[in-house]
Amino acid sequence: MTAVEALQAFLPDEQTAALITSDVNRRYLSGFASSAGAVLVTKARVRLLLDFRYYEAACNRVQPPVEVVRFTKLVDDLNNIFLSENIKSVYIEDETVTVAQLHQYLASLVPQVLTEDLSQKLSEIRMLKTSDEIEKIITAQRITERAYLETLNFLKPGVTERKIAVELEHLIKVYGGERVAFDLICITGENTSLPHGVPGERVVSDGDFFTFDIGAVYEGYHSDMTRTVAVGHASDEMRMIYDTVLTAHRKAAGAIKAGGTAAEVDLAARDHIESCGYGEYFGHSTGHGVGLEIHEAPIVFKTTHTVLRDGMVITDEPGIYLPGRFGVRIEDMYLVSGDKPRDLAAIDKELTII
Ligand SMILES: [Mn+2]
């Protein structure tokens, strides 16, 4: 079933439509990226409504069953469709429509406006990736890996975090990434205890950890990977913490099974870290879905009872963060596939000493 068909199956009857206005879900359903417009889905049809700026490009790119419609005033053109096709109710994206847009819809649209369920439904549909989507995620990952391996050549005592981050971003674009997947996290020394530290003027020193949390975007799809490497040498304690995180990562990966739950994956990592005495230093979830957004459903946490299914892509990223000292995180994306997930990374997870 395609995403459009899944959404049509969600609609209760021929008199109900779904109006999709967020950039990411418009792109998801139509295959066309734009900064404005709407997708209108009914049981019978799916239309991409665009203004003059995008119309020609969309006509060249968009595939059936999506029809491209040029609008002049969106609300008026929508109402014409609603009236001619006897649409009585229209779902809107409750999690992304602004209060101002809601007021406009309530005041202007002819059908009853339904403000529940659509965002959640689209999030559920997006969890299951097609092979085409998976290939794009893998391509984004390969671009990141190539840039990462080349950037390691620059990693030596005296270089700043910022220099490494800039080099990586540059190479991700050189190797075909349309942009970085998020503000790259390239941090060293004590900063590695900050799960979302920001690269700055801190200089790499011998005996430090360096954490890369990095990703690229390829045709709209994101990748996500974290590696923690040691510069020069690593102390026994650093090695012990690294091994604890790596074992937690592998235990979580081992729990990624179709028919299992996201909670089981989180607990596999969390139980190991807790059993080693570091539970209080692992304060985030074990992972998240990845796709058209860097963070999407399902969140991989002990309270998430989402059942894993073939075609979901989730990250596995446990960490231990010792405040004021150092931290370790090891992250890769996994494709749920029967009893044994596919590791989408092609970069070794063992401790690398540069
Ligand atoms: Mn991540």
3D architecture notes:
By secondary structure, the protein is of the alpha+beta class. Helix content is 35%, strand content 21%. Strand 16 and strand 17 (326-329) form a beta hairpin. Helix 7 crosses helix 8 (161-174). The longest helix is centred in the middle third of the chain and has 21 residues, at 131-151. The structure holds manganese (II) ion. Manganese (II) ion binds at residues 224, 288, 315, 317, 331.
In short:
This protein has ten helices and 19 strands. It has 354 residues and is an alpha+beta fold.
Mean pLDDT: 97
Largest sheet: 6 strands, mixed
Which segments are poorly predicted (pLDDT under 50) over 5 or more consecutive residues?
Answer: none
Name of the CATH homologous superfamily of the largest domain: Creatinase/methionine aminopeptidase superfamily
CATH architecture field of the largest domain: Alpha-Beta Complex
Number of domains: 2
Multimerization state: single chain
Radius of gyration: 23 Å
**Which CATH class of the largest domain applies here?**
Alpha Beta
Span between termini: 47 Å
Write down the secondary-structure element order. HEHEEHEHEHEHHHEEEEEEHHEEEEEEE
Structural class: alpha+beta
Instruction: Report the CATH topology name of the largest domain.
Output: Creatine Amidinohydrolase
The coarse silhouette is elongated
Number of strands: 19
The order of strands across the largest sheet is: 4-3-2-1-5-6
Strand content: 15-25%
Helix content: 25-40%
